[in-house]
Design brief:
The chain is of the alpha/beta class and 293 residues long. The chain has 10 helices and 13 strands. It is 31% helix and 24% strand.
Amino acid sequence: MFKERLSCCPLCKSRDISFKYEILSYSNKFTTDICKSCGFIFMNPQFDDETIKSFYSEQYYSGKSDYSYIDERGIKKYSSYVWDSRLKIIRKFAKGGNFLDVGCAFGGFLERASKWYSPFGIEISDYAATHAKKIFGDNIHHGTIFNHPFQAESFSVITMIELIEHLSDPKKAIEECYKLLKKDGLLLIQTANMDGLQAKSAGPRYEYFMPGHLSYFSKKNLCKLLRSVGFSYIKVFQPVEFGLLPKLLKSRGSFKSFKDYKAWIRIATYHYKSKIHCGDFALTSSMVVYAIK
């Protein structure tokens, strides 16, 4: 179920690591360590590859497991508000070309992107990849960023939306994305900022501590990693780059009655709290990073 325990930080290779949290919220319990040198938090020991792959079955998308994710196919109309708004920002950096979504699930985002780009995806889940392949054929790689068939300098855009935290070797993944991008290509990463007050205050109760999440970044160490790999321009958005309205419209996909609109107060409050940040300080832990090769 678990690999051998890591003796050094997966990010900077420092041996100055120590216990951080024990996560008991799931049937698959795990522990995390923190690197004293770079602040990177990581699952240690990590679940083995077979266990990790088992997480992303049909039950993961249907909500029948204690670790699950929303099936985007049921709310595609509402998710499109976010996808389209995000693509509007992406197109300011790259107008067209090949577009790779790492962790593409059922391919909903790629369907929207295909209006301007040639869509490609990577998906580890048998269940989700099978569906995506019905739409995009061999443009979907059923596997990981570490074993893909794509050629170097093939892509104008690579997106990793709520994906990098799922990876056992995020440094290697960023290096691979750099190789795959054309000159001036864009890498988009959405993940949590563990230096945010939200994450620090919640501690082991922070919602990002999930069995499938192996890697936990801060804004500082993620940007440092991107620079070390060679990215020339980095811009961080807190909480997201596309604004509040698309998030409000997307939330309607889960509403059952008019009273559910009360959730907009919570969503808007969180969004504007996320605007309170300075340097390494952030009130919340949401972030999106754009990096240009």
